[in-house]
Design goal:
This protein is of the alpha/beta class. Helix content is 38%, strand content 15%. The chain has 2 domains: 15-268, Aspartate Aminotransferase, domain 2 (3-Layer(aba) Sandwich), CATH 3.40.640.10; 269-381, Aspartate Aminotransferase, domain 1. It has a 7-stranded mixed sheet with strand order 2-8-7-6-5-3-4, sandwiched between helices. It has a 4-stranded antiparallel sheet with strand order 9-10-13-12, with helices on one face. Strands 1-11 form a two-stranded parallel ribbon. It is globular, with a radius of gyration of 21 Å.
């Protein structure tokens, strides 16, 4: 099997991810922050180490400003529902995942907020920062933007949008689901007030992990209440980070594995990781480009693409192409609508969806050549 679905979940992971998780499970999988015995202290130390590694990766000054979540969906919901209040207005884009769109729709349905959706300026899904600026109202309280489209791989101008939001005193939430571990994030210089990230994609950790960075001073309300191990004698939920957002036991083995993944990334370097992925997508793009039966929706330029090649084969629904690649060639890709309906409306692919090829660092040029040959055969045999 050639696995090319890393935008959904990265695989394989670095060996140390498996090793660290198994070692923790076998040596004493205790609750962090709940007890004073040695195993609980060891668990707390492991969780704190991962916070510190993430802080280094994202240039976060205080590791305690990161709360661990089950995934990016939890983190985005905590940010959106915990920050907005009745009467607020939000500016976001058509290229967002349903993890952004659905909570916004839910809050608008109950007449709590309003929002403006900014449309992309071209078939690759690029967003013009000027369109974001034009959508701002006096009551705009939050701007939300994905760092990179999970449909086309297009990198958004998230740094410029951060500057704009900062100048206008508007809070800025970045969905780093398709950028963390590959793109550069500096929450200070990029004026990112909240950063949501999954652990199981580019950060090379296991499923069931993720997190939310919250800049000090952002008035966030918790939406999940429960035990935190702190102030256990009170019925009032803590109002300080990270306990405020970490009700219940965190996925400690998962967080340990996430830390191992981030440590590997810091050692390898995001520049090297992105360069490798750029070479892989450029090769596939070049092999498919120009074929009359294949339409590409992604750029081959690593400066504008975080690592995805999205395409359609003429006469085929995306699911048909994906099934053929799986059953006939042993290639795992993602087909369909990628939980991003407005992106597909903007791209004109609501009838067919798209096939998404997303290589990871551990894929090879041979993988891409074999995949290109398979896609071309499907297109030629139409």
């Amino acid at each position: 099997m050639i696995y090319l679905d890393n935008a959904a979940t990265s695989w394989p992971k670095p060996d140390q991810v498996y090793h660290e998780m198994m070692a923790f499970m076998r040596s004493g999988c205790a609750n962090p922050g709940r007890s004073s015995h040695i195993l609980a202290r060891s668990a707390s130390k492991g969780v704190m180490k991962t916070r510190e590694l993430l802080s280094e990766l994202f240039h976060i000054q205080n590791p305690m400003d990161i709360a661990f979540t089950a995934n990016a969906t939890f983190a985005l919901n905590m940010a959106i529902q915990g920050y907005l209040s009745k009467g607020d207005h939000v500016v976001t884009t058509a290229m967002e995942h349903n993890s952004v769109l659905r909570p916004l729709y839910h809050m608008k349905k109950y007449d709590l907020i309003d929002y403006t959706i900014v449309m992309p300026k071209n078939p690759m899904g690029e967003i013009d920062p000027g369109d974001i600026e034009a959508a701002i109202r006096p009551e705009t309280r939050l701007i939300i933007c994905t760092a990179s489209s999970n449909v086309t791989g297009t990198i958004m101008p998230y740094e410029k949008i951060g500057e704009m939001a900062h100048e206008r005193g508007i809070a800025y939430l970045v969905d780093a689901a398709q950028g963390a571990g590959v793109l550069d994030f500096d929450v200070e210089s990029m004026h990112i007030d909240m950063l949501a990230f999954p652990g199981h994609k580019g950060l090379l950790g296991p499923q069931g992990t993720g997190g939310l960075y919250v800049r000090p001073g952002i008035p966030l309300r918790p939406i999940i209440f429960g035990g935190t191990g702190s102030r256990s004698f009170e019925t009032v939920h803590p109002d300080f980070m990270p306990d405020m957002l970490e009700g219940g036991t965190v996925n400690t083995p998962g967080v340990i594995g996430l830390g191992a993944g981030v440590a590997w990334i810091l050692k390898k370097g995001t520049v090297a990781i992105k360069a490798k992925k750029t070479r892989l997508i450029a090769h596939l793009h070049a092999r498919l480009s120009g074929h009359p039966g294949i339409k590409l929706f992604s750029s081959s330029d690593g400066n504008t693409n975080s690592g995805i090649v999205a395409f359609l084969v003429k006469g085929f629904d995306s699911s048909e192409t994906g099934n053929l690649l799986d059953s006939q060639y042993g290639i795992a890709v993602r087909s369909g609508f990628h939980c991003a309906p407005l992106a597909h409306q903007a791209l004109g692919t609501m009838e067919t969806g798209l096939v998404r090829v997303s290589p990871g660092f551990f894929n090879t040029m041979q993988d891409m050549e074999y995949t290109a040959t398979a896609i071309l055969r499907i297109a030629n045999n139409g």
